[in-house]
Amino acid sequence: MLITILAGLGLANAQDSAAQEPLAITGKSGRHSFSVEVMRDDESRSRGLMFRRAMAPEHGMLFDFQKVERVAMWMKNTYLPLDMLFIRPDGSIARIATNTEPLSTKVIPSGEPVVAVLELNAGVTAKLGIKAGDQVDHTMFPSR
To answer: 73: which strand partners?
Structure first.
């Protein structure tokens, strides 16, 4: 079993942030649109949301691992509580870790092989009724 542990989740400031891309999540609660930064390489994935103090309500960060594997995240140097959505290659949500603890080094596992993780502000998934099994629509996932 291969576990990828990211060195952290963050950017030191907004000017270092990646370009925003559209992403939507569709499920029984409806369709919810977000603007996300996509982290596609090891350096950006290890930086993630580190040291950032705020994230706009309808924004997020998508970690593209570019291969299917078990992954693990942590909150070291991350000041924002987050909801982490672990995403299968078909775009379906495998698992959601809600309200993760800021600055924690506790490992948060995917639970199964995934290709991506979407980080949203803590509480967003509960507020919008987003659940495991819902579909993430983004260019990295094949259209259904």
So the answer is: 108
